[in-house]
Design a protein that fits this description.
Chain lengths: 466, 225
């Protein structure tokens, strides 16, 4: 009995220690963002440094959103002679292929590639398309993203530094009014990019390459072995390989791109599951190389390990719960103290979710006036829901890793944009010619540029203010 | 920042007697208004170095002696939670945890009838936890609010508001817990402790923090403080 009690106390202390370390890390990042030197790489040469680029847009059953991103990309102000857009129709079974072909026929800068076999997943599609890319820089966008007109120039500028292997831009959800969950995810994204990524960038740590709204130098990609088809999070995998090979990843907070976050819990759970499986896999693959790398500084090692292990805080929390309930059953009232401690840290985690509440607050502050921050206390539900999904995904991961059970299939997040008739990919209202009409992000009657201007208003604080 | 936090924390410590007395007076008043009898009071030393405080005593029956009331209450709460679980996917894990906590306490209470939590001990534990929080609140709020608040005076205002709110809200929560114990034994003890204890404290801290951020961002318009 006493051995069990000691084990429970030890487990509780361990959990508290781990969560405290995460809290400290996030507090440091938030304070760095509030008080630290704001570093923006190569701002002065934006628009002057224009290497040849290839924009890769993998699409798997993206008929709802395909036209919007292609329309947005064709409106980007980048030297047309140096711009190539490769749209990869990755084994789509809906109308994606037709939409892509039609848009490609109308725009010489766009080339449509059709992948009909091979492993599922984004990495497979990228691996298929990369040999056909002619640009020295590869820029990536998921199909549900909407880049602004200047996006490509901003993302490309940091590559003027030959040590930079990858660049990441900022992801901003545009459908924050769809549901409470979408609003909460927008807070989480704001914290992750406006604070987490930018703070790591300015502190000389390694921002994470997110696999979309980002770019990678083709020579760097080849040097580290290309896209890893076996990884569910090929972006995290590439971040680690670039870091270990000595390439720098740069972050451009100003390069905002608009995405659609899941507005329903089932979609969010599946997205989270994929991220957890991918991260756990990367953790096992890279924790040793990162820890013992002679290239990396201690701060980089610690930060990268924290990043790779971030989803393990959920089972740590379970450990704390089990420990405190065990103590409650064994020692009664004193066990409530343990439960109190667990509740406190659950609370901390709950408001934290993937990024802590003071990171969320700092991001809200830097993004300018917005009532979204008032949703913060509602993160309790998001936390518990994410927490369950993360634990379930980790159980699945280890069941596969240890016992060979289950599969690690790629899961694509469904899109929920409404299809509006009469809006064509070129914004002239011609439709796609087959009577279906393209999906448009815009509310009826609002064109792409107006929509982008409205979307960017929310997080434009940095410009001129920092 | 450190000076502000330390000053406010020391003020709470120096006036601990009055703070605790007010808390217990409020708790007793709420219990009486709710019709929960408080047949006695006991003079309680919360922790070494703190003045003793008179706390209301509420009778907490063993669960086996209020079996019907307990089972009815637990049953109806569980049914309500299951229904919420069915219709609100985002809340499912939270509701599952809440249900698990109730089931653990009920199981322990029925398997071991001698296991009980009297109101004295619960109040003592509650006040200890809360007093630590009241000492920490100035520090927590200082480090959360002062860095973002352009006006230091307003920042101190936030800290004092949160402190006052924390004190009053704690008395309400304790009274609610004691009232539930009085009617159903310890069946909801773990759940209430978990949800109305420090978790609830963190919730109001966050509510105030989000309000502070909202106000500060309106004043700063994207500039750093």
């Amino acid at each position: 009995m006493s051995a069990l009690l000691i084990a429970a106390e030890f487990a509780l202390l361990l959990s508290v220690a781990v969560l405290t370390l995460y809290a400290l890390r996030h507090y440091v990042l938030a304070q760095s963002r509030l008080w630290g030197f704001h570093r923006s790489d190569a701002v002065e040469i934006v628009g002057y440094y224009m290497p040849s680029i290839t924009v890769l847009v993998p699409m798997h059953n993206e008929e709802k959103v395909a036209a919007d991103i292609l329309e947005a990309l064709t409106q980007c102000d980048y030297d047309r002679a140096k711009l190539e857009i490769l749209v990869i129709d990755d084994r789509s079974t809906d109308a994606t292929a037709e939409i892509v072909d039609e848009v490609a026929a109308a725009n010489p800068a766009i080339k449509a590639l059709h992948r009909t076999k091979g492993n599922g997943g984004k990495a497979g599609a990228l691996r298929f398309a990369t040999p056909q890319a002619t640009g020295e820089i590869l820029l990536l966008f998921d199909a549900d993203y909407i880049p602004g007109r200047t996006m490509l120039k901003w993302l490309v500028a940091p590559f003027c530094d030959p040590e930079v292997g990858a660049v990441m831009g900022r992801v901003v959800p545009h459908n924050i009014g769809d549901s409470v969950l979408a609003g909460l995810l927008s807070l989480e994204r704001a914290a992750g990019y406006q604070v987490g990524q930018q703070a790591r960038h300015q502190m000389g740590l390694a921002p994470q390459f997110g696999g979309t709204v980002g770019g990678v130098r083709k020579s760097a990609l080849h040097a580290v072995g290309g896209w890893n088809e076996d990884s569910l999070t090929e972006d995290t995998d590439l971040t680690c390989r670039l870091l270990l090979a000595g390439w720098r990843t740069s972050y451009v907070n100003r390069a905002e791109c608009y995405e659609e976050v899941p507005h329903g819990w089932p979609e969010r759970r599946q997205q989270l599951t994929r991220w957890v499986l991918g991260h756990a896999e990367c953790f096992h693959r890279y924790w040793r190389p990162v820890l013992f790398s002679p290239r990396l500084t201690s701060a980089e090692k610690i930060d990268t390990l924290f990043m790779l292990a971030c989803y393990f805080t959920a089972p740590v929390m379970v450990l704390a719960w089990v420990a405190s309930l065990t103590m409650f059953c064994l020692v009664g009232l004193k066990g409530l103290t343990a439960l109190a401690l667990t509740a406190a840290f659950t609370g901390y985690q709950l408001f934290a979710n993937q990024s802590t509440f003071f990171e969320i607050g700092t991001a809200a502050l830097l993004d300018g006036p917005d009532t979204r921050i008032l949703l913060l206390p509602a993160n309790i539900l998001n936390f518990f829901a994410s927490f369950g999904a993360i634990c379930a995904a980790l159980v699945r991961f280890y069941a596969r890793r240890i016992f060979g059970l289950g599969s690690g299939d790629w899961y694509k997040t469904p899109r929920s944009r409404q299809r509006l008739n009469g809006n064509g990919a070129n914004g002239n209202g011609n439709g796609n010619g087959n009577g279906n009409g393209y999906t448009h992000i815009h509310r009826e009657g609002v064109d792409l540029n107006t929509w982008l201007a409205q979307a960017s208003r929310r997080s434009r604080a940095e410009e001129g203010a920092l | 920042m450190v000076a502000v936090a330390a000053g406010l924390s020391l003020t709470v410590l120096a006036s601990s007697g009055r703070v605790l007395q007010f808390h217990e007076w409020l708790c007793r008043t709420i219990l009486l208004r709710a019709g929960v009898p408080t047949p006695a009071s006991s003079l309680m030393a919360i922790a070494p170095g703190l003045p003793s405080v008179e706390v209301p005593v509420v009778v907490v029956p063993p669960m086996t002696s209020v079996r019907t009331a307990t089972l009815a209450a637990v049953g109806s709460v569980l049914v309500a939670l299951v229904l919420l679980h069915r219709y609100y996917p985002l809340a499912r894990t939270f509701l599952a945890v809440t249900m698990a906590l109730i089931i653990v306490a009920v199981t322990v209470g029925f398997l071991n009838p001698a296991f009980t939590i009297d109101s004295d001990a619960y109040t003592k534990l509650w006040l200890r936890t809360q007093f630590v929080l009241w000492l920490l609140l100035p520090w927590i709020m200082t480090f959360l609010v002062l860095p973002i608040e352009p006006s230091p005076l307003r920042g101190v205002g936030w800290i004092l508001t949160v402190g006052a709110y924390g004190l009053i809200w704690s008395a309400f929560r304790l009274a609610f817990c004691l009232a539930v114990f009085h009617h159903t034994g310890i069946a909801f003890s773990t759940m209430l402790w978990f949800n109305l204890g420090p978790l609830s404290d963190l919730l109001y801290i966050l509510v105030f923090y989000s309000l502070a951020v909202r106000r500060a961002s309106a004043r700063l318009c994207g500039r750093r403080p």
